[in-house]
Amino acid sequence: MLDTHRIRVFRSVMASGSIQAAADNLGYTPSAISQQISALQKETGLTLFEREGRGLTPTAAARSLVANTNDLMGELSRLDRVVDDLREGRSGLLTIGYFASAGAEWMPTLARRLTTEMPDITLELVLTEIPEYAGATLDLDIVIDTPGAQDPAGSRRVPLAVDPFVVVLPADHPLAGEDEVNLTQLAGDTWIRNDLPHTTCSRIFAAACESAGFQPRFPVQAQDHITAIAFVKAGVGITAVPQLAARIIPPEVRVLPLTSPTPVRHIAAVVRDPAGNSAARRAVELLQELIG
């Protein structure tokens, strides 16, 4: 089994760019860092660094090793926190996954209420849209429902909210003064993409446009809600976002309901070990209260 301390030292050298920099960052001597790297090379049978002038250059094996230890170090950090909780007498760690718009709208209040009710709990919030956290082990995961989704064994899915899409228009758009907009009325507009093409939200919107008899033209690929709305403000085009993502809107744009059809995303909470995890159950109850 690999020595995890040596792995940490090796990762520091890779991130810092040199043995001297890693020594400075970790508070060791350069000699101690070199010894740890030499021991790791012997332990693995790999050449991790090669001499180049007065410095060291990581090999392909080193780059592969550091990439494949990301998950390991994340789990070790999680274990360290569990040990700290036990040592300090805290009741445990609750890990909650969320996506960006749910995070901005719900997570701050949820975190405050949970930690007020359970002052001994350690709360860890994980933005699961970041690829490195996509497979993280979570006690509670706030997700967008997708047909046929496979939840972890022993978990339970709880519906939380129905989140219809709205259209964001420049204030001078011909339809900006309407109470609502039929999706077919926007078929000829220039659209701004606010998400990656193959995400659940993109598929929901594309299916609604298909039902309305057109395919939107996306000459601008903003790929996030805030930037897409900024493009709308500048008069570049229009965009459609889930209502939850349209809470903070500049005065230069208008937000209107979409009809015929209305794209909708369904939001749920996936609870791991629902019978034995009272903190996760309480978090779901608080979310349901927040959402109303």
TrEMBL record:
Q: Matching PANTHER family, A to Z?
A: LYSR SUBSTRATE-BINDING, TRANSCRIPTIONAL DUAL REGULATOR HCAR-RELATED
Q: What phylogenetic lineage does the species belong to?
A: Bacteria, Bacillati, Actinomycetota, Actinomycetes, Micrococcales
Q: What is this protein called?
A: LysR family transcriptional regulator
Q: Name one Pfam family in it.
A: LysR_substrate
Q: Which domain of life is it from?
A: Bacteria
Organism this protein belongs to: Terrabacter terrigena
The protein's matches in InterPro entries, at most eight in alphabetical order, are given as: LysR_HTH_N, LysR_subst-bd, WH-like_DNA-bd_sf, WH_DNA-bd_sf
Name the family the entry cites. Belongs to the LysR transcriptional regulatory family.
Domain (HTH lysR-type): residue spans on this chain: 2-59
